[in-house]
Every structure is written in C-alpha cells, then in structure tokens.
Amino acid sequence: MSASSLPALPKVTIRSIHVAPLFGESPKGGWSAEIRPEDSVHALIAVHTEEGLTGHGSVFTDGRLASAAVEVLEPLWRGENALEPERVTEKLHQNTFWMGRGGSLTHAISGIDIALWDILGKALGQPVGRLLGGTYRERVKPYCSLLMEEPARMADVIAPHRERGFRAFKIGWGPFGRRDDARLDEAIVRAAREAAGPDAQLFVDAGASDAHWPQGLKWALNTAQMLKDYGVGWFEEALRPDALEDFCVLRRASPVPIAGGEVLTRRQSFLPWLARGAFDIVQPDVTKVGGISEQRRIAWLADEFGVKYVGHGWNTALGLAADLQLASAMPHCDLVEFIGGSPYVDGIVREPFTVDDEGYLRIPARPGLGVSLDPHALARFTHAPAALFAPE
C-alpha cells in the first residue's frame, strides 16, 4: 500500500479547555514561607474536543494563574487540531513571546501540551511513550521525595515508604543549610541513610531556590564532601538558581554528581547550563517547561552534552504519568520522582501506583498517558470536577 493510499487521520478539533485548581491537601513544600493545605500550587487541565475525546494534563502553578492563561490563549487554541501537540503548543509559544517567556503562560501551555499528547495516544490506541519514538523500558525506579526533618524524626519520615517498597529516596529542604550548622546537616543525612538502609539510593536536595537562600559556593563545596561519605547519588539545588558560574565550579570540584534546573523553563533557558557543564543531572519539570513536547527536546539536548536527564516531578499523578511515558522513551532515564504521601498523586487516580518487589513502577501501556482520573476522589480537591470529564 502506498503512502498516498493510506487513510488520513481525521481532524480532532479542540472545543474547550477546563482548568481545575487543586486545593485542600496541598503537601508541604519545605519553603520558608510555607504553603497552606488550602493553597493552590497545582492545577489539572482537561482539553475537550468536538469529537468527544478528552485529554488531561497538569500544571505546577496557582490555579488562578493557569485559568487566566488559558483564557488569554483561547484565540490561539480554539478550533485547533488536538492530534498535533507539538505544532499547536509551539504556536502558543511563538505567539506569546511578547507577554513574557517562561511564566504563567508557559506553565499553562505545559498542561495543554500534556493533555494533547494524551488525546493523540487515545486516538491512535498507543501509549505516549511509543509515540515519542519508541520504548526503551517497561518499568522505572521511582525515588520517593520527602522533606527533611530534625535527625530524630528522619526514621519516621522514611520508614513508611520503605515498607511500601521504595528503594530510592530524596530528602530535601527543611532545616538543611538554613541554620548554618554543618553538624546538623550531617546528622540529618546520617539519620536518613540509616533509615533508608545501605542498599537504597539516597539523594539530597538543598532547595536553594527557596526565598533568600543563605548559603554560597563554599558551603556547597564543603557539603558535597560530606555527602560523599554517605553514598549520596546527587546533590540537588545546592546553589541559588541563577548562580551559573558557581554551579560550573561546584560541578567540577564535587565528588558527588550535581543536579538542578527545576526552575528553568523552555529549552532556550537550559542551553547555557548544558553548554557550560553546570550539571551532571538536569531536572526540567514537564508541568512547567512547556509540556512533553518541550521536555523531550530538553532531554535529548542534554543527551548530546552527556548530561543525564531525570525529570523534576513535585506535582500530581498526571505529571508522574507524563514522566513515566518520557522515561520509557529516553535511553538513559532510570529514575522518576514520586512525592511521598501526596493525595494529589495517590488519591486522584482509579488505580493507585504500585511499587513492585524490586522497587520499580510499571510504565502504563494503555493508550495516552495510561492513567484514569477518579471523579469521586477529585471532588475532595477541586470545584466542579465533572468539567474535567465533559465540557460544561
């Protein structure tokens, strides 16, 4: 059969986009100005089509900002073909440069793009990972992302998740680096290593994107030396997020790998960090950078520079689902981030994520993102959850 005789895919027309802010049980972020449970820092997005297909995405920003952004973008997305995620989302990017690249508009476009990939997978009966070029793996190890506490409490923080089956952990934020007490920092890491066990992978996130981060390069250099003694797999956000020169120095000197990039958006922002050799591991967030389309470009760009890609995933079940599909389609991605105990991950899908006996997550093989939202569970966290499943 010739290419010209193959049946053409019909257009699937975007009819409406609904934003559902999540609030009520927002997990602690560890920030010095801590978010409250009723604050909205994540929102879900539903893209509805005239043909009845609906796709879902996730946005890491205040739901009010996401709603305003979708409204601003409406003349660009209404009536577009939902089967062409990269073209449609690049259209949204290209026509909004003058409003500021990388802020709320980019965040909202991220959720739209994820939802469009979900629609494309459903329309073709294929998981998104296969549509991204092919699958390198069917499962991937999740690292359980947890907040640091005082040393005496770290065992209580880690133990329930180790019992659940996790064999990789990241501890971050909390008092670490914020009290100018190197002995406290080490005691926290020591307690975490003891709780996780010698066989577990352990990563440390200083969280230097917090407001008015007090530490600098010398602290990061000294702390990296300490982390080596506890077999830490990477040191994340060790410096303020704009300290490119210091990151380059730290990466060259550190005995442990250096990770970062979660606050950057769009591929253009990542290029100088990759070209200058600032990271061993780059961590774009699919719910912020521009969605799956942009995340894939960043991941392959990192691969060209010999930098490992592991997505930042402090978001929702849909963000995790997108990261799992991307992990299946990238040759060297062996980890995904999993927020420990967040109801926005474990509590909004029909089938909760399950860690197997070896500490791995199975990558969904169903069409699209491969996960299904639970409308009854969502009613606890958002107004009008029905609008996520059918246009109002």
Automatic annotation (TrEMBL):
The keyword DNA damage does not apply. InterPro entries: DgoD-like, Enolase-like_C_sf, Enolase-like_N, Enolase_C-like, Mandel_Rmase/mucon_lact_enz_CS, Mandelate_racemase_C, Mandelate_racemase_N_dom. One of its GO terms (biological process) is amino acid catabolic process. The keyword Lyase applies. Residues 151-257 form the Mandelate racemase/muconate lactonizing enzyme C-terminal domain. PANTHER family: D-GALACTONATE DEHYDRATASE (PTHR48080:SF2), D-GALACTONATE DEHYDRATASE-RELATED (PTHR48080). This is L-alanine-DL-glutamate epimerase-like enolase superfamily enzyme. The lineage of its organism: Bacteria, Pseudomonadati, Pseudomonadota, Alphaproteobacteria, Hyphomicrobiales.
